[in-house]
Write a structure and sequence with these properties.
323 residues, Metallo-beta-lactamase, Chain A, five-stranded mixed sheet, 10 helices, 14 strands, globular, binds zinc ion
Amino acid sequence: MANCSFFTDNVNLLVKLRSFVRFDRCLALACSVFATVAFSAQPMLQDKQWNHGSADCAVNKDPAIEVHSYSSTSYILRQNKCQSFEAPFMYLLIGEDSALLLDTGATADAVAFPLYETVNALVGEKHLLVVHSHGHRDHIAADPQFDNREGVTLVTAGGSGNLETLGIMNWPDGEGRIDLGGRELRVIPVPGHQEESIAIYDPETQWLLTGDTVYPGLIYVKNWDDYRMSIARLARFASANDVSMVLGAHIEVTHRQGEYYPVGTSYQPEEAPLPINPATLSLMHTELEKLPKANEVELARLRIIPMNLMQRTLTDFARWMMK
Ligand SMILES: [Zn+2]
């Protein structure tokens, strides 16, 4: 597979860390005519099989970035698993005036991983705001592709301008707003997996984008109390607002309950669907509140795991290394 620059150089470290820190136009016409919450489109995303790597990456012919067009204004991008075992999902939401890209993937190299080029072709002349679900390396690696580009505002994860740009005045109990023009996104602080983690709600698709805070896989939690309160916050949000799907940044489990892929694998046949039912948030909240102290929680397609002291120290070290 293509050269992955920084990532390749550090893959061994990241695999080790990960073992600790688990970290096309909507096919159609059917769902693109009205960009509002096309309920009929949901089964399409629920049933979608993403490119999922190869047992032998030397023969993998999938593109570096799979682009799924949910509608003409809402795209889901996934990095090739043969390029990064993390295979993160990224989200592109386009309003009347500007667009928002959530996360920049796991590879910096613009030749191997042409994220800016791909996104720019979809956004056209509109202004692009790049933000991050959180600051782990597999969500920010291609930031340099967007840095100092005309018409692009890059907000560094956890940076000093982050809260201001996201419109969050009161962290973590407040909420931010990002107006893309006829599409006002809501930003919800969800610290726990990482200090600066956020979720984004899009009223057009009614998607709740949760990064590594909620996704089908092994969710490692750095600060248990923060995470418990963040899940409570998300559960409250989902009960008070129309949420069609919860969409995270990875898939790490098969469609069979409790069957997780080995950490670092380049091949994930029979993946679970990306969308998570919003009702799962209240289930997570209930289970977390039952526990007197941090402990593993096992649900149908996700497992919540508290980091131990060594794991937290390693994440702090990785965080320091990236600054
Ligand atoms: Zn993460």
